[in-house]
Amino acid sequence: DENSFAAKANYEIIGIEPGAGIMKQTKTAISDYKLDDWKLVEGSSAAMVAELKKAIDKKEPIVVTGWTPHWMFSKYDLKYLEDPKEAYGGAENINSIARKGLEQDAPGAYKILDQFSWETKDMENVMVNVAEGMTPSEAADKWIKEHQDKVSKWTKDAVPGNGKKIKLVYVAWDTEIASTNVIGKVLEKNGYDVTLSQVEVGPMFAGVANGSADAMVAAWLPSTHKEYYDKYKADLVDLGPNLTGTKNGLVVPDYVEIDSIEDLK
Ligand code: PBE
């Protein structure tokens, strides 16, 4: 019926970049919950947030793909739709991954990447500053300056880089823009000549696996990037979580009348 939430939201879920794990999870959700009339709209993380803002300004219904950590939760009143069928898996981790041979070629960088670990509130601090207008580089510098205690744990016993080149790959998700800029700066301060290279998610995994990139800190596991991880894991060195407790799902403004993915039917 035309007054249903679904009709008012145009049967559209506002998605992000086509290769993102959350897009695949959303396709699973559409099929698990039998949302045959719904379309998943491809776009970008930035476009998704822009659509969300537009809808909130007009108090209109909207459903987006969303994840935590994200600054949008501190800026807007939002809720995750309940996911009783667990199409989005549960809480996850973000892992750091190095290329094979990095430990021998750049032991200091390897050690720093291996010791890199922070919390949701740290990542959000950087993300909020970027969302409010700082460049990622400025926001990373500020966070590092204010958290020397954490940074010194990451750099403990790491030999200096002596100008050796390190290439980090990342995808332009707000979370990864934050983490990659921070760890990039920390590697620079330890004497490495660091390049950050923005790519799509498939090439990010492929690049570290084939050695054209040295590392990434952006593997959401075990579910979001399972497809990519399983494909390349034999050629990667998994350094374990740098952040625990992430979440993916469908997100709506607090003011909408539904609470569960089941209510989208
Ligand atoms: N995300 C943010 C990514 C991982 C980081 C949840 C949008 C994804 O879905 O692949």
Query: In the CATH hierarchy, what is the class of the largest domain?
Result: Alpha Beta
**Secondary-structure element order, N to C:** HEHEHEHEEHHHHHEHEHEHE
Mean pLDDT: 96
How much beta, percentage-wise? 15-25%
- The beta-strand count equals 9
The CATH architecture term of the largest domain is Roll
Rg over CA atoms: 19 Å
Strand-pairing-aware structural class: alpha/beta
Low-confidence runs of at least 5 consecutive residues: none
DSSP helix fraction: 40-55%
Write a compact overview of the structure shown.
The protein is an alpha/beta fold and 265 residues long. The protein is built from 12 helices and 9 strands.
Describe the secondary structure blueprint for this structure.
Blueprint: H1 5-8, E1 12-14, H2 21-32, E2 39-41, H3 45-57, E3 63-68, H4 72-75, E4 78-80, E5 92-99, H5 102-105, H6 107-115, H7 120-131, H8 136-146, H9 148-155, E6 165-170, H10 174-189, E7 193-198, H11 201-210, E8 215-221, H12 226-232, E9 236-253
Helix pairs in contact: 7-8, 7-10, 8-10
The chain binds 1,1-dimethyl-prolinium.
Characterize the structure shown:
With 265 residues, this protein is an alpha/beta fold. It folds into two domains: 5-89 and 248-264, D-Maltodextrin-Binding Protein, domain 2 (3-Layer(aba) Sandwich); 92-246, Dipeptide-binding Protein, Domain 3 (Dipeptide-binding Protein, domain 3, Roll), CATH 3.10.105. Helix content is 42%, strand content 23%. The protein has twelve helices and nine strands. Helix 10 (174-189) links the parallel strand 6 (165-170) and strand 7. It is elongated and about 65 Å long. Bound molecules: 1,1-dimethyl-prolinium (PBE). 1,1-dimethyl-prolinium binds next to helix 2.
